Amino acid sequence: MKLIEYIDIQPQNTKWLYDLRQKGLLIVDNSFQRNYVWTPSIQIKLIESILIGYPVPEIYLWNIGTDEDNGDTKYSIIDGQQRCGAIFDYISNLYMLKANSLDIKGLKFDEIKNKFFKDLNTEDKKAIWSYIFSIRLVRNNIERPDIVNMFLRLNSNNLTLNPQELRNAEFQGEFMNVASQLSEISFWDKNSIFGVADRRRMKDITFISILLIFLKQGIQEDIINTNINKMYDLYNEVYPSKLDDITKFELVISFVDSIIDGNVERRKFLKSSVHFYTLFTTTFELTMDTKLLTNQQINNYRTFIDNYHSDEELISCFSNIDSVIYKYKALAKEGTSKKNNRMERHNAIKQVMNYPIL
Which of 61, 101, 133, 219 sits between 20 and 30 A of 262, alpha carbons compared? Predict the structure, then answer.
């Protein structure tokens, strides 16, 4: 079977898409793409393109069935969630076309700058409603695995998706669900560990997956994409220790939160995946039996990061392990990929946290 033979190309306007959404017949399948996370600037540029009359990428919808009583057909958005969302939100007057996000030399700049949909002139409103999209409709008799394979190939070829976004399409099972669940705990936003761009490209999910791999396999295990994919596959259908791993993860995160204690500079320091990963692994080892960090261990690490950029202060506080600290700072510049570096940084921070302050 050639999948292309089961895809129909139809020109449809904004009104058609909007009506489907209003009737509950246009749904978002987040196994193909993450929640709606476009930045305001990108949304505005899309609306500007529509008003100017430029083409926009085609939208892929999957026919997931027709109601036998009223004849309504429901569609799942395979590709185009952000485009549809930006248009629907603009029509609903949820944002304006801010001038600083528009092309100042554009044909419509003076007419549309700083305007909500309700403020547009009649012709521009009609232009949005009547804008014709190229819709690729995948027929109802296509099975989900074929849809996923099509999506993966489509996005692998045009390089729009990173490895985690591709994993999100390929795996919808237990490991993905746990990583996604842990990405929503309040700690990350409270401490600004991940920026909007990181979340938009699912880099937070990747990092959390790496931390889960540590819980499952230890610090020596590879954290390259091949191994991450292997873990997603291994625990896709069944994740026996899921609840235990979630509990362990959240406990370590609570200790990290207590170390930060709302301090802005500590938050900035731990935005580095190298520092965060090392603190996470060390804290896990130190609390594996006792389920707590001592005040001295917490204060030692705070002293370490609060004075990180002053060698003089660091050596004054940790005079007997100066070579260990210098080694950590050198290895911290090399990223998280090398196993030996991860272990050496782990051992260095363990010595820092257990340092006997007199």
Answer: 219
